[in-house]
Specification:
The protein has 17 helices and four strands. By secondary structure, it is mostly helical.
Length: 483
């Protein structure tokens, strides 16, 4: 089945329209960080409660990604994106109106589900509309938005919390979301599949149970003193059960009785894709893991205002967004793996410097570290995506998009849970919040070392040719032009 020929201008309009919603979903992974102290005061919440405000969103975002990618394949990515966008906006309104930590956590779950429906569709459109030779530039834009949104949250959040209150970090989504809805109808084509894929219901259940139990156990371990949670059930048993369900999930994906697995394991025969997901988890853990404790520290030890805390982190936002655009264009080169390698090294140097500079004096000494961190992130985001997916068989692009997005969000969840656990453990034993933040940063340095090793192991692939790049190859999805 052939697709309607589209011009480059039309394809780029689609990217711009989708990036607005994509920016909003990633902004909400970090914009809450700077508001956590205010939430503790206004909602009477504990440290564990507000860490769950972060993790509930990330977990609900990560778990359904494999499923929502397949739903997009079945019903069309535009339709799934639109449903997710509406759910995200309604949940954002509920978040802003919440009067208790429990209500806010519940609303954040629905917000995460909306984001999960939207995110895989953005990559699906890029891989379907752009040929390999032009995909690097589109992924550069996508990576720039990812980096900018992830680290600009504290700055925007600081402005809103200081002048309007923490509720407005959620209300700000409403005008952005309305614009995203309008552009969805005006600029985004309706890609429709030739066939309706089956759903791997057991796979969904096993994946959800595994991730949910694992994250709950890691994050709440210190809260329950690593002992009993309810009755005879202990934290260790919950973590072990999570690992068991994830093992069963992998075995079910490999089973010959599973006609259409959520995660076809043959995709991991592609070396760069497998290594890319390892590095993707590392960047997810690091980005979430550095900003949660840092923004808490800035408002707890030197007692900066939310706005000033946001300004300290602003250079990372600026540098990440700018660098990612150029890094995406360079990622089509055969030696592109040196971009993420350099990025991981710079991130490590930035975090290492911060561990020695943390204190209750002037915080402007952190700015060079934030610049290094931002440049490093910009060099990792879009090149890593392009390198990981460039050599995938076209029939696996849909599954690859879902898996890749899931690995990044899984990293975000682990970063929030692990650093939250380290903060609580060290704080309980020493009473020193600065020491707790340093301990969390040491954990992140170990994670970055894994990312560097994975990036070094990438196989060099010839740059994509331009002879056939006038248009993307037919993905088997007919395009209906938006009215």
């Amino acid at each position: 089945m052939s697709s309607t020929t589209r011009t480059d201008r039309e394809n780029w309009r689609t990217v711009y329209a989708l990036c607005i919603g994509f920016f909003m979903t990633l902004l909400d992974t970090t914009i809450v960080n700077v508001a956590l102290p205010s939430m503790i005061t206004d909602l009477g919440a504990s440290l564990n409660d507000v860490i769950w405000v972060v993790s509930a969103y990330l977990l609900a975002f990560a778990v359904p990604l494999l499923l929502t990618g397949r739903l997009g394949d079945r019903y069309g990515p535009k339709r799934l994106y639109g449903i997710g966008l509406v759910l995200f906006l309604l949940a954002s309104l509920a978040c802003g109106l919440s009067t208790s930590a429990e209500a806010l956590i519940a609303a954040r779950v629905f917000q995460g589900l909306g984001a999960a429906a939207m995110t895989p569709q953005t990559m699906a459109f890029i891989t379907h509309l752009f040929p390999p030779a032009k995909r690097g530039a589109a992924l550069g834009m996508w990576g720039s938005v990812a980096g900018l949104a992830t680290v600009s949250g504290p700055l925007l959040g600081g402005v809103l919390v200081t002048h309007l209150g923490w509720e407005w970090i959620f209300f700000v989504n409403l005008p952005i979301g309305v614009l995203a809805v309008v552009l969805l109808f005006l600029w985004v084509p309706d890609l429709r599949p030739d066939r309706a894929p089956r759903f791997d219901v057991p796979g969904v259940v096993l994946c959800c149970l595994g991730l949910g139990l694992l994250v709950f156990g890691i994050q709440n371990g210190e809260h329950y003193h690593w002992g009993e949670v309810a009755g005879p059930v202990t934290v260790a048993e919950i973590i072990a059960a999570g690992v068991l369900f994830l093992v069963l999930f992998v075995l079910w994906q490999a089973s010959a009785r599973n006609p259409e697995p959520l995660m076809p394991l043959r995709i991991f025969r592609n070396r760069n894709f497998s290594l890319g997901n390892v590095a993707n988890i590392a960047i997810g853990i690091t980005v979430t893991g550095v900003f949660v404790p840092l923004t808490l520290f800035l408002q707890t030890v030197p007692k900066l205002s939310p706005l000033m805390a946001g300004l300290v982190t602003a250079p990372a936002s600026l540098m990440s967004g700018v660098v990612a655009i150029f890094a995406g264009r360079l990622s089509n080169r055969a030696n592109a793996k040196f971009l993420p390698i350099t990025g991981f090294v710079l991130m490590g140097l930035g975090i290492l410097a911060m561990t020695f500079l943390l204190g209750d004096g002037t915080q402007w000494v952190l700015l060079p570290s934030m610049v290094a961190l931002g440049i490093g992130m910009g060099l990792v985001f879009s090149p890593l995506t392009n390198i990981s997916t460039r050599t995938l068989d076209r029939s696996l692009l849909g599954a690859g998009s879902g898996i890749y997005n899931t690995s990044r969000q899984f990293g975000n969840v682990l970063g929030s849970a692990a650093t939250g656990a380290v903060l609580q453990i060290v704080l309980a034993s020493t009473g020193d919040f600065t020491a707790a933040v340093r301990a969390a940063f040491y954990l992140l340095l170990a994670v970055l070392a894994v990312g560097i090793v994975a990036a070094f192991a990438f196989r060099q692939v010839a740059a994509p040719g331009v002879a056939d790049s006038a248009r993307a190859s037919d993905p088997g999805l007919p395009v209906s032009r938006p009215s």
